[in-house]
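Contributing new records

If you add data, match the layout below exactly. Sequence lines come first and carry their own label; structure lines follow with theirs. Keep one chain per record. Anything else will be rejected by the validation script.
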Amino acid sequence: MEIVWILLFSMLLVSNADQGFNIRQHLSTVTRYDAVKGVSQNLFDPSEVSHECTPIHINLVARHGTRSPTKKRLRELENLAVRFKELVRDAESRNSPLRQIPGWLREWESPWKGKVKGGELISLGEEELYQLGIRVRERFPSLFEDNYHPDVYTIRATQIPRASASAVAFGMGLFSGRGKLGAGQNRAFAVTSENRASDTKLRFFECCQNYKSYRKSKEPAVDALKEPVLNEISVALAKRNFLNFTKQDISSLWFLCKQEASLLNVTDQACALFTPSEVALLEWTDDLEVYILKGYGNSLNYRMGVPLLQDVLRSMEEAIKAREEKHPSGSYEKARLRFAHAETVVPFSCLLGLFLDGSDFEKIQKEQPLELPAKPPKSRNFRGGTMAPFAGNNMLILYNCPVDSSAKYFVQVLHNEQPIPLPGCDGRDFCPLEAFKERIVAPHLKHEFDILCNAKTDGPKLKPASKENLQG
């Protein structure tokens, strides 16, 4: 009886800790856009853009919306149902107190059971991009007042269906009411894609041989960094639920939690097995993987994205040239809209120096390694759920300001629709174009894609994690 009371008290403590903790904001790159949109990690007072400054061009780099589990993960979930039954039978054979085993776990079957294909954009993901398209048009009405033409509003996506479907959903929102098709007065628009094997702007990670080698070489090290956390949590969950969970079980349960919370809005099953502090640790392990394999963990991760950065800058310069030459509105490009993947958005954010302080930004400009993100409960700027949630995006708005201002053209970066400070522009979010080009873009342009990605190297190096970060 005393054991039962202790367990009930422990459950009450966990429940109290859960109050005010929104697990949907802590799912790394499986986070839904609505869970983090408008959430600021640091106090930041955005610039007040003068009403005399006119937006003349927009660049958008967006991730696809919420998607279903991929084919490989569907099999993992079906195998998890079999594993649950094994765990329950094992507990019964040991005469464990069965009332401690969550009721849902005994009869659980994958909600995607029998599904043989996965990875597609789901209706929630369609809605994310559709609403984003509407908000972008409402926020920058002068940019979208012209009649549609594919050379004025360029929409590009990778050849992966969930990315192109996201582009279509965004376009339907952006141009809603602008056509004559159906009750919604929709209109047709073009979405273009490059061959995935040669798409160096949006799928550079698939075209870069040196990166593929680097990633393959580092995956075992990433697994080794995760292992102590998974072992620690497997022991804790086994004690609370009297089930012999392994570290692989914890990995699968965490994956299930993320899918249930993001895709099904279910947080009282797999997610409820973990305490908030355990969720924070699991989120951190995911973020370590993003950091090492996609982010600041190695300069190759983001410098292979130079073709995309060049494309962004080129589009700005073309818009300025058209304006300087007084081309009529509707005769030149006003928006270049791109839809891709977390493997695109994270490196592009790193190229801009987002989520770094000034000293770390100086290090990446000098190609010096950074420390890994600090382990909870320590705070960190690098969070996968903030950098690249489903439908996560960076918008670069080019402004033309009055001649008597300090500069004529400015760039403002919006991350997930919020102004964000640029370390390369002294922490400002409204940056003179020349400063943006000189301090943020130019240092990367000395790296040519073919040399970075196809020249033989001794292999990129990653600074090992500090002992403090791993044990803190």
